[in-house]
Amino acid sequence: MGRKWNNIKEKKASKDANTSRIYAKFGREIYVAAKSGDPNPESNQALKFVLERAKTYSVPKAIIDRAIEKAKGGGDENFDELRYEGFGVNGSMVIVDALTNNVNRTASEVRAAFGKNGGNMGVSGSVAYMFDPSAIIGVEGKTADDVLELLLEADVDVRDIEVHDDQVLVYAEPSQFHEVQEAFKQAGVTDFTVAELTMLAQNEISLDEEAQAQFEKMIDALDDLEDVQQVHHNVDLA
C-alpha cells in the first residue's frame, strides 16, 4: 500500500507549498459544513471531520473561527458539491471534487484544465469505479503493533495498517473515520499527521518522464482552481 501513500504525501506536499490557497479552500469547506448543520463540531460530524483535516494542515484558528462565524450569521453564499471525472495522458484517471457557487464556471474551468494538458473530461462514473473511498489516519510515536493492539482493544476492525516514513497509517472505511480517531484518543494520541477521506486507486500506473511532466502540469492546473477542493488520481508520482 506504499504507493497509495505516495499520492497522499505528494498531494500534501503540494498543498504545503501553497498555504494561502489551501487556507482559502478550508475556509470554504468549513463554512459549508457549519452552515449545513449545527456550527458546534461536537454535534456536527461533517464539521468535526473538516476541522480534524484542517488541523493536519495547520490552518490558523482565525480562519476557522471566521468561517464558522460567517455560517452562524446566516451567510447568503450557497455552494454545490460536485464531482468531475476524467482522463489524463496514457490512460491516467482523475477525480476532481469541488465546492462551487457557479456550476457553469467550475465545469468550464475544469474542462479547460483537462483539455489544455492532454486530458479530457469523462461522464459521471467513467473512472470512479476504479477507486475506493477510504479513510486514512496517520500517527507518529507508535509502532504498527501498538496501533493494532489499541484498535483491537477498541474493537475497531480496519482495512490495513502500514508503516511509512516513521508514521503508522491506518486505512479504513470512510464510515470508520471517527471511530479510528476515537480509539487513538482513548489511548492518549491526539495529534495526527494525516486525517483524510480520499479516493484511492485500486491499481496505479507509472508514466515515462515526459508523460508524467504533462500529467503533473494538469494536476497542478486542476488543484489551482479556486472551486476545486481535492484531486485524486491513479498515477504513481514517487
UniProtKB/TrEMBL annotation:
- Principal localisation: cytoplasm
GO MF annotation list: DNA binding; nucleotidyltransferase activity
UniProt keywords (A-Z) are: Cytoplasm, DNA-binding, Nucleotidyltransferase, Transcription, Transcription regulation, Transferase
Q: InterPro entries from the entry?
A: Integrase-like_N, TACO1_YebC-like_2nd/3rd_dom, TACO1_YebC_N, Transcrip_reg_TACO1-like, Transcrip_reg_TACO1-like_dom3, Transcrip_reg_TACO1_YeeN, YebC-like
Which terms under GO biological process does the entry name? regulation of DNA-templated transcription
Q: Name one GO cellular component term.
A: cytosol
Q: Key word DNA-binding present in the record?
A: yes
Where's the TACO1/YebC-like second and third domain? 80-235
User: The TACO1/YebC-like N-terminal domain covers which part of the protein?
Assistant: 3-74
State the compartments where it is located. Answer: Cytoplasm
Q: Which Gene3D superfamilies match?
A: 1.10.10.200, 3.30.70.980
Per the record, the similarity remark reads: Belongs to the TACO1 family. YeeN subfamily.
List the PANTHER family hit by this protein, alphabetically. TRANSLATIONAL ACTIVATOR OF CYTOCHROME C OXIDASE 1
Name of protein: Probable transcriptional regulatory protein HMPREF9372_1853
Tell me the organism: Sporosarcina newyorkensis 2681
